[in-house]
Amino acid sequence: MDIDKILDKIYPIRTLSKLKLIECFKEVRHPKNHVIIHSDKVEKDVYFIKKGIARTFSDFLDGEVTIAFGEEGDTIISLKSYILNQSGYENIELLEDCELYKISVAKLQDLFSTDIHIANWGRKFAEQELIKAEQRFISNQLGTATERYLELLKKHPTLLQRVSLGLIASYLGITQVSLSRIRANIK
Amino acid sequence: MDIDKILDKIYPIRTLSKLKLIECFKEVRHPKNHVIIHSDKVEKDVYFIKKGIARTFSDFLDGEVTIAFGEEGDTIISLKSYILNQSGYENIELLEDCELYKISVAKLQDLFSTDIHIANWGRKFAEQELIKAEQRFISNQLGTATERYLELLKKHPTLLQRVSLGLIASYLGITQVSLSRIRANIK
DNA sequence: AGAAAAATTTAACAAATGATAAAAAACGAT
DNA sequence: ATCGTTTTTTATCATTTGTTAAATTTTTCT
């Protein structure tokens, strides 16, 4: 998905401002398994996925929590770096070879403070992410793990072909073994 | 908490724009148990809590999911109405008699499109909510219900005095009876 | 193709949570 | 203050999920 379409999907910007914004992106590639965002660093850049898939996760004493999966058009971003200029709680790793669009947080903030159309695009960007985050919370609060698994499959039908079972389990808040058992019971 | 402080806590706005924004708020009161946001309606207004406490929840076939509690300074908002102009999934009820600041979504959007400082305030508002939503997701994914309960208490020490056990349980994703049992085991 | 590594399944038992019901305690309206 | 309502606790049993370990399947690398 090219950058023009990605930006428009979030919120259409008038042409002049959009060109100003697009011109600040740089295309980069990274291989599968590359960890592109680190929880212990203040990350200087934000990425949009042109091609590939990524996983956001937090590390804890007793393992990992997968927070989200990102596919084409989605963002690779350390929220705490982007919003608070602090090191965060998220790591992000690429689950496939990826083509990404990259822009610096500083450049974005500069544009936000000088161009009202870009500022409103940035507002819409945060708002869309907010809706997604709230829906993730509700879904994972609801029903049994079986129901949550089925709903995830319905919402992201291709995910299972692209992502290992253990990662999906950690997204659902259960163990990999439990998810395997659940799948056995569905068939 | 008065509106000036509430706005500044989200993001300091330059004085002239802040006055423009504050002037659009109206103070209203509603009694305990009033349902101020309905999931089946496109809500026209957004509220900030001057005094009191509120609960955001979704209704489902097999009961309710509490999404968040809001205290002084927090927002009472239908995200889907605010962001997408659609009816949503959230209901919000007041758990105490409340004093609120109210502004229309339309007026806010008008200000966003004409005043870059207010647009950036709106961006920061969404961003702060996004951080909170992500942290809620992570917390509720992590550890046992006991740990999540203790963490909630640590983060919102007064909540237990203000909110019934059943509501806290539905926030933690467990039943009220389970939470009662958990509390018995802690002591 | 074949060996090594990684991912998934299966199984058995333990621990946590759900469901239901009844008792006790706290709260509210008159 | 007291009666009626709501909330919380306690108890029992069923279900779900966790833990561990081993077997099986799939993937990766040469």
UniProtKB/TrEMBL annotation, chains A, B:
Domain of life: Bacteria
CDD domains: CAP_ED
SUPFAM superfamilies from the UniProt entry: cAMP-binding domain-like
Keywords: Kinase, Transferase
Ranges for domain Cyclic nucleotide-binding: 20-112
One annotated GO molecular function: kinase activity
Pfam families, per the entry: cNMP_binding
Gene3D superfamilies: Jelly Rolls
The protein, known as: CRP-like cAMP-binding protein
Organism: Leeuwenhoekiella palythoae
